[in-house]
TrEMBL record:
The lineage of its organism: Bacteria, Bacillati, Actinomycetota, Rubrobacteria, Rubrobacterales. The gene is panB. Pfam families: Pantoate_transf (PF02548). The active site is at E186 (proton acceptor). InterPro entries: Pantoate_hydroxy_MeTrfase, Pyrv/PenolPyrv_kinase-like_dom, Pyrv_kinase-like_dom_sf. The keyword Metal-binding applies. This is 3-methyl-2-oxobutanoate hydroxymethyltransferase.
């Protein structure tokens, strides 16, 4: 299952050409990155969902570029084959193409990721062009844009009307034309996800965008059942790690309280003569 060759920008483009689906998941730390890579995940996204999943913010808006760099570094240290994409956080790219270039450069140069992702369609064309021009591969993101969720009053499905769907399709086309090598499409009806995937030559990765996309992404702590606060319709839970952790930590608590842990095998022996001299000198 684990692939031996490095996943690169050209290799994900080739996967789309061959019709091979792309498996992407998020990671925010070293051990998770290693495990996902062992499982055969091709693209690891250090999402700004970091803020909600591991830092306890109630949206992705407060996440800083420094926080992203810190976690990108850990994930990069845990990978040798997967393509690592770092999310540009809110406030680090929307002001101007120059700001986008400066932030993307820091994420790649200090964090060590292979590519950056930013949210927005046609309105982000100038930023994408500028980042691509300095040599940094860019992933676009259309549909539900969590950093702008305030604008539509929460995490709402996008592209439900024909007019909105056409606007999303145009946004994705514009991102590709601007040089994006991959586009994430979030929370749109399946026909919209499929149409965008068909329209683009670059891979389209869906999250709540139906089975017609070129690949899928989920937030790893959600799909592992580690975090249970959010339950979007698109989420499938593949494990119940919250239950596993609570059960294990609960048994530890009981054993500590009852003096059943540690046992002799968990301790260090002392030479009998040394112990005798030690005790006699007390
Ligand atoms: N833990 C976590 N998982 C995520 O998938 C995620 C984050 N955090 N943070 C950033 C964004 C926010 N996301 C979300 C969060 C909630 C819904 C959600 O509950 N959506 C409703 C749609 C309601 C409607 O418009 O009808 C749903 O029922 O799926 C969707 C995407 C996806 N991203
Ligand atoms: C949900 C994915 C696509 C994302 O942007 C994130 O994890 O931040
Ligand atoms: Mg994100």
């Amino acid at each position: 299952m684990a692939r031996l060759e490095r996943v690169t920008v050209p290799s994900v483009l080739e996967m789309k050409r061959r019709g091979e689906r792309i498996a992407m998941l998020t990671a925010y730390d070293y051990p998770t990155a290693r495990l996902l890579e062992r499982a055969g995940v091709e693209v690891i996204l250090v999402g700004d969902s970091l803020g909600m999943v591991t830092l306890g913010y109630d949206s992705t808006v407060p996440v800083t570029l420094e926080e992203m760099i810190h976690h990108v570094k850990a994930v990069v240290r845990g990978t040798s084959r997967a393509l690592v994409v770092g999310d540009l956080p809110f406030g680090s790219y929307g002001e101007s193409p120059g700001q986008a270039v400066r932030s993307a450069t820091r994420l790649v140069k200090e964090g060590g990721c292979d590519a950056v992702k930013l949210e927005g369609g046609s309105e982000m064309v100038a930023a994408v062009e500028a980042v691509v021009r300095v040599g940094i591969p860019v992933v676009g993101h259309v549909g539900l844009l969590p950093q702008s969720a305030g604008r539509y009053g929460g995490f709402r499905v996008q592209g439900k009307t024909a007019a909105e769907a056409r606007e999303l399709l145009q946004g994705a086309r514009d991102l590709q034309a601007a040089g994006a090598f991959m586009v994430v499409v979030e929370a749109v009806p399946a026909p919209v996800g499929e149409a965008i995937s068909r329209a683009l030559e670059v891979p389209v990765i869906g999250i709540g965008a139906g089975a017609g996309c070129d690949g899928q992404v989920l937030v790893t702590p959600d799909m592992l059942g580690l975090q249970e606060e959010l339950s979007p319709r698109f989420l499938k839970r593949y494990a119940n790690l919250a239950g596993t952790i609570v059960e294990a930590a609960g048994r530890y608590v009981s054993e500590v309280k009852e003096g059943r842990f540690p046992e002799e095998v968990h301790g260090y022996a002392m030479d009998a003569e040394e112990e005798r001299r030690f005790r006699s000198g007390l």
